[in-house]
Amino acid sequence: MNVPRLVATDLDGTLLDDAGLLSPRSEDVLRRLQESGVRVVIVTARPLRWMEELWARVGGGRGVGIVSNGAITYDIDNSEVLDLHGISAEVGLPMVETIREAAPGTAFALECLGGYRHEPSYVDLHPTPPDMRVAVLDELWDEPAVKVLAQHLTLDPDDFRARVIDAVGTTATPTWTIDRLMEISAVGVTKGGALAALCERLGIPADDVVAFGDMPNDIPMLTWAGTSYAVANGHESVLAAADHVAPRNSEDGVAATLAGLYGL
Q1: What is the pTM of this model?
Q2: Per-residue pLDDT tens digits for 17-46
Q3: How distant, in Å, are the alpha carbons of 13, 184, 223 from that of 188?
Q4: Domain 6-84+189-262 CATH class label
Q5: Top-level class of domain 89-185
Q6: Distance CA 1, CA 157 (A)
Q7: Residue spans in the chain of domains classed CATH 3.30.1240.10
């Protein structure tokens, strides 16, 4: 295999350990790769607001990152959004009602460039940001949503996923990373699509990209990249889709694999 010119990796469950932390070994490998001229691109479901403290450690404080499952491509150097693909209220509100009909009791939150907001019935699973807004969706949806979060705490997770996917149809792009929560992006928005667009801009073909992931939202990225690895703790569908299996995230699997590939 030719040595890839670009490394694309998911964060949670892949590069980060089970506590959501970047190990010193992983940080060192990423730094050495970038110093040697290899591009490292973080491709994550995390919102932009969760990345400020991490950029310097995982991106070397430079380069480009992809967040919100591909909805935002971000220039780390200049703190600038390069691309944003969101769901407008005109498209999103009817879609939400269709989901409610298919899965009564579903609660919704919106991740927007201008902040996170949700309706009263939505239960926060992470620390609440200070600027969070709570209201009915037609009041909150005043800018494109880079992710619509659909939550159901009582339905069987597989059943809930199937209902949401069927209800969304071709209106948007649904995916998931944890049970009881569906993450819905604009039509055609995936990690793989955003990575492909970025690499076209950089003049880097898929064959020169190695990608790492662990959950179904990583599959479009893994199947696009010339070389792909699922970490051993990954979802069974990801293990089936990837070319290779790397050690677990808790074993610094991405760092260990990259060290071997690049002779570090």
Answers
A1: 0.91
A2: 999 999 999 999 999 999 999 999 999 999
A3: 24, 11, 15
A4: alpha beta
A5: alpha beta
A6: 39
A7: 89-185
Examine the pLDDT at 261 and tell me if it is beyond 80.
Answer: yes
Contact 60, 30 (CB under 8 A): yes
pLDDT tens digits, one per residue of 98-114: 999 999 999 999 999 99
Which pair of structure tokens corresponds to residue 1?
């295999």
Q: Is the pLDDT of residue 70 over 90?
A: yes
Q: Which residue has the tokens 């964060």?
A: 11
**Cα–Cα nearest to 99, from 152, 143, 47:** 152
18-22 own/partner pairs: CB under 8 Å, 24+ apart: 18/249, 18/250, 22/54, 22/57, 22/58
Cα separation of 87 and 214, whole Å?
26
pLDDT score at 2: 77
In the chain, CATH 3.40.50.1000 sits at 6-84+189-262
Token reading at 264: 């570090």
How many Å apart are CA 207 and CA 196, to the nearest integer?
A: 11
Instruction: State pLDDT tens for residues 131-190.
Output: 789 999 999 999 999 999 999 999 999 999 999 999 999 999 999 888 999 999 999 999
- Residue 60 clears pLDDT 70, i.e. is over it: no
